[in-house]
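Reading is simple: each integer encodes one residue's backbone shape. An example follows:

___
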Amino acid sequence: MTKILLVEDDTDIIENLDELLKAEGFEVSAAQTQTEALGLIAKNKFDIALLDINLPDGSGYAVCSAIKADEAKNLNAGTPVIFITAYDDETTAVTGLDMGADDYITKPFRPKELVSRINSVLRRSGGVKPIIEIGDLKVDSLKGTVHKNGEEVFLSVLEYRLLLVFLNHQGQVLSRNKLLEEIWDIAGEFVNDNTLTVYVKRLREKIEDDPQNPTIIKTVRGLGYRVGD
């Protein structure tokens, strides 16, 4: 799963972006200060960083500098950066880009525009696989489409989110609790254990040749589900 570092001091923006990005199949780690961000960078490898410029104890510029310094030491090699800022002036944009940032977006922005820019930057940096295939199923994570045997399969938001979770954890056994954590409250729907059973059933009906004997989403008795070997 693509890991995103989100550095933003506004709690509401963090909550909204966290929900949006998780619904798109990303894993999000958030920090509200420069200090928190630097701590996360020291301990984790991220695929992309979204950085606000003004932070309570510093700036996104400093976080960007730390990421680029790690690249030089081959610790966080190839981590692209997108600045997210309330400023809309050429100097701010040029400063970020001169520091090695890959893109720049100004608040307020359309959520889907941000997702598009993230995918574009990841694609250029080689950090995302836009097409995921398993058997006769083909998922385009950039376009948000699913095809089976060349025919488009139409999924609900939660069904698509659930499928992305499975595909991003191929070969892993996912417990029901883990799945509930991943899709909880996406699209504003209450998801409990019984609801999860319904969505797995619906998803199988749409993507399996024989939903009663699934070959894509396999049940691991007593443990959960697994996609792939």
